[in-house]
From TrEMBL:
Domain of life: Bacteria
Protein name as catalogued: Seryl-tRNA synthetase
Ranges of residues in domain Aminoacyl-transfer RNA synthetases class-II family profile: 247-393
InterPro entries: aa-tRNA-synth_II, aa-tRNA-synth_II/BPL/LPL
Amino acid sequence: MYAYTIPLSQTVPLQLAGELSKRIFFVSEDIESFELVEQMDGEAKAVSAVRVATRVPLDAAKMQHMLDRLVSDEIVPQRSVMAQPIWRSGYPATIRDDTFDSMLEQGMATQSGEGQFGFGEPFIALTSHLDSLFQAAAQRSFGALEQQYPSLIPTEVLARSGYLASFPQFLVFAGRLHGELDSYKDFVEQVSGPTAAEDAGATVSRAVADHSTHLGYTLSPAVCYHVYEQRAGKCLDADLVSVTARGRCFRHESRYHRSLERLWEFTMREVVFIGSDDHVTDARSSFMREVFAIVEELGLAGHAETASDPFFCNARTAEKIWTQRLMQLKYELILPVAGGRSVAAVSFNAHGSALGEAFSIRTPDGEIAHTGCVAFGLERFAYAFVCQHGLHPSGWPVSVRNSVAASQSRRGE
Ligand code: ATP
Ligand code: ZN
C-alpha cells in the first residue's frame, strides 16, 4: 500500500465534509481508502487535506489537481443548508450489531460480487411482505396502476431525463461484442489463448473492452424513468396518474458499497405521481404520512428529514443541491442499522415540471405535467428491519410473522 497526504488548495468547512466524503472514491478508482485531515482555519476547524491509500504509486500532483477541482467546483460553492427533521418514530432503536455477519453465517445472504448479494429465507419473505405493504398503500390511496418494466432502459431516456449528466458515476451500461465475424473470432482467440488460464479475469476484461460496443441501453438506476418514457408526448386522462412498479436497479457505488446498506444491484419499489402541481404535491405529502404510519406499525425506530441527491461532475451540482434542500424537493426516511450508522430507506421526491417538460407530458388541461416519486430500497429497508428486530421471525411484529409464515407454508417449507 502507498499512502499520500494531498493538501487542498481551498479548505472545506466541516459542515460540508460529508458532501466531500461522498465523492472521493469517484475522483479516482486508485483510491483504496481515505481519511479527511482537519485543521483550524481561523476560528473554525476545516478539512485541509485528504490522506489516501492506494495499491499503485500515485501521481500526487494529478490527484491534488482533481481533488482541488472537486472542492472548488462542487463542494465549496454548496451553501450549507442543514437537514430539517420532519418526523420521528416513537420507537427507540435497539440494534443488533452482528446482523450482517450472522446473515452471512446462516446463508441468509451470500455475496456473489462487489455490492451484489443473493438471499435466502426468511429474508426473501420479509422483503416481499414489506413490498406488499408499500404496494397496497399506493393502491388503496391512489388506485396506483401496477406495472412491470425491464431492467434495461434506453440510454437516450436517461439522457433526456438529465440522469446521465447528473450521476455519471453510477452508470452501468449494457454492452455486447461488435457484430462482426472477425471481431468474434479475435475475441474467442483472446479468451481461450494460453494466457487466459493464468490471468482469467484480466484477460477476459481486456478482450471485452477491446471488442465491445455500447448497446444503446443502460441497466436502470431507478424504476420511475420507465414511467415517464411510457407517457412521453401524451396527455394524461386524469389530474393525477399514479403508477407503481418494483424493479432491479443498478448503481456503480465504487468503494462505497457496504453490507446490504449500499449495493451495486438492488430492488426498488417506486410509486410515481404525474399530474397537476397541486395533485402531485398533495399525493407526495399524504403518501409520506402513510409510509410513516407503516414504519410505526412495524415498530421501527427512524426519522425523516430533508435531503439532496449526490450530483457529481456537473457544473450545477451546488445549485441543484441547494434548490433541492431549500425547496424541500427530497425527503428521506432514515432508519438506524448496525455499527451506529443509519441509512435512507425511502425517498420522497418532487421534480416540479422538469420531467414533464423533458418527456412532453401534459395534464388534461394541456399544462406541462408535474411529477414526483416515492422510492423504497427493499434490501435496505429489510436490512434495517432485521438490524432492529433480529433475524428470527419470533422477534418480529405478529402481523409480519404471520405473513412470512403463511408465505413459507404456501411454498411447503
Ligand atoms: P443515498 O443518499 O443513500 O445514496 P439516494 O438518495 O441516492 O440514496 P434514491 O436515489 O432516492 O437514493 O433511491 C431511492 C432508494 O433506493 C433509497 O432511499 C434507498 O433505499 C435505495 N437505494 C439507493 N441507492 C442504493 C444502493 N446503492 N443500494 C441499496 N439501496 C439503494
Ligand atoms: Zn424515482
